[in-house]
Design brief:
The chain is mostly helical and about 110 residues long. The protein is about 65% helix and about 0% strand. The termini are far apart.
Length: about 110
Amino acid sequence: MQRTNTEIAESIRALAKARGVTIKQTLADCKINRNFIYDLEHGGSSPSVDKITRIADYFGVSTAALLAGETERGESGDLHAFLELYRRLSDADRAELRAYMRKLLENGD
């Protein structure tokens, strides 16, 4: 059974709440218009695959899980927490972190 746009919006809200982020922050981090959830809840057009994919990636769930209303992620909590922090870094800080991680791997630490 296909879920309604309102149900998809509820899933996104549940994921945001479970992760301790606001809808506003979620949409900003995903580079999606701040009216996206409102539009879903009030009869706007169906969400694009691109937007659903960005939101699913942000929360570390599959697009199928997001559309089905499954809010449990398939990755470890530590990895998800790391990804959430990583997404909030500037591009320069991300590059520095990647370089540091490569150095750790090269040194065997």
